[in-house]
Amino acid sequence: MMTAVMIAIVVLGGSAGDVFITKGMKQTGEISTVHLGKLARVAMRVLRNVNFLIGIFFMACSFFAFLAVLSWADLSFVLPATSLSFVITTIGAKFVLKEEISRLRLAGTLLVCVGVALISLP
Predict the structure, then answer these.
(1) Are the beta carbons of 89 and 15 closer than 8 angstroms?
(2) What residues contact 94, with CB distance under 8 A and at least 6 apart?
(3) 97 DSSP 8-state letter
(4) For 89-120, what is each residue's pLDDT tens digit?
(5) Three-class secondary structure of residue 22 per DSSP
């Protein structure tokens, strides 16, 4: 049971982190320079963006939950199970970021679900 809870934290935390970091970066704007001074100003804008910081928090929670679950569960189970994050991230991209999800991408997401179901069988 604890393994399932930790995998859920890994999946949900990673997906939420990806969505919030993407939202924060889109608010910051395109990075189109390699000039060190301008990059430093962009970095300061990014580090003051609330969505970016929330994303970093969720990603950190996900990472530490991943480390914890790896200490007692098999990698060959944990890593495929965390692939559900692709599904959750796709849903977040559609509803939070308002991205268009093509049928092909949706089909791929559903195949990930089938694969996770298959590896979860006893």
Answers:
(1) yes
(2) 100, 101
(3) S
(4) 999 999 999 999 999 998 998 898 888 878 77
(5) helix
